[in-house]
Design goal:
The protein is mainly α and 289 residues long. It contains 13 helices and two strands, in the order ββααααααααααααα. A two-stranded antiparallel ribbon has the order 1-2. Strand 1 and strand 2 form a beta hairpin. The longest helix is centred in the C-terminal third of the chain and has 32 residues. 22% of the residues are buried.
Length: 289
């Protein structure tokens, strides 16, 4: 018969429990793992509206994506601040992290792709007009990376807090705008028109910026920090392109060419997004090298 010892709560403890190496068991007066992470709120935030088993997958997929996007924005805001202060080392680490977050989001589509067309059809009537197109965090990511579109603020007029965040993001320099200003501060010739651009407009390729990046790539030893920054940005956009491609292929696999729940053209709209280039000069210069 195993030996029993009293615990702080008065309950007996078997000797075998000592194998837990003194791990704390009583959290009546201490913060637990669940307390720290707010698991009570997170794990009770899934409320399927349909009787279909597969709706839980749909909800968890999108909720976890929003959590990853929250982290992306946390990192990207910090990247922009570091670029503004010429503090590049931490910006490099954060950009690498954001690219890996995008990889995580790419692979998340693998899970959603296990949902078949009949399974999605069973839950679609319960989604109403809700759509990922309405994700204000995703829109802010697009804005902070330079893909600006003021008209899309209209989607959020009924959500004042989200509207305020996006309006601010629309009018602020993107991460790429800050990278271009950094080129100029390092003595590379960037046109005054590009440096004084209207930040609320989408990024447009500029010949002076392309030539500045070309100089960096032709002498990476001299401009090593800028060279590394450029490659981090290319890594990030590449990961973003994979995410967009995986998105459209997953949607086509599940709903074909039906109109999206939010009213977009669905697959045809998403295919147009594949042509969006966030950092145009960094891709154009490869042909010129």
């Amino acid at each position: 018969m195993s030996e029993q010892k009293p615990t702080a709560s008065g309950c007996p403890m078997h000797a075998a429990d000592a194998e837990w190496h003194g791990a704390q068991m009583d959290f009546s007066n201490a913060m637990s793992y669940g307390d720290y992470l707010g698991l009570g709120q997170i794990l009770n935030a899934q409320h399927p509206l349909s009787p279909n088993h597969n709706e839980m997958l749909f909800i968890v997929q999108h909720q976890t994506s929003e959590l990853w996007m929250k982290l992306m924005l946390h990192e990207m805001h910090a990247v922009r601040a570091h670029l503004q202060s010429d503090d590049l080392a931490p910006a490099f680490k954060m950009l690498a992290r954001v690219a890996r977050i995008m990889d995580q989001l790419v692979h998340a589509w693998d899970v959603l792709a296990t949902m078949t067309p009949p399974e999605y059809t069973a839950i679609r009537p319960y989604l109403g007009a809700s759509s990922g197109f309405q994700s204000y965090q995703y829109r802010e990511i697009e804005f902070i990376l330079g893909n600006k579109n003021a008209a899309l603020l209209n989607v959020h007029t009924t959500a004042p807090d989200a509207y305020t965040v996006l309006d601010k993001a629309l009018r602020a320099p993107s991460v790429y705008d800050e990278a271009i200003k950094l080129l100029a501060r390092n003595g590379l010739p960037v046109s005054a028109a590009r440096l004084d651009a209207d930040w609320s407009l989408p990024t447009v390729a500029d010949e002076s910026v392309k030539n500045a990046w070309l100089e960096v790539y032709r002498d990476p030893t001299k401009y090593w920090a800028l060279y590394e920054l450029a490659e981090k940005l290319v890594d990030l956009e590449t990961a973003f392109r994979f995410w967009r491609f995986r998105h459209v292929t997953t949607v086509e696999r599940i709903i074909g060419f039906k109109t999206g729940t939010g009213g977009t053209a669905g697959v045809s709209y998403l295919r147009k997004m594949l042509d969006v280039v966030l950092f145009p000069e960094l891709f154009e210069l490869r042909t010129a090298l």
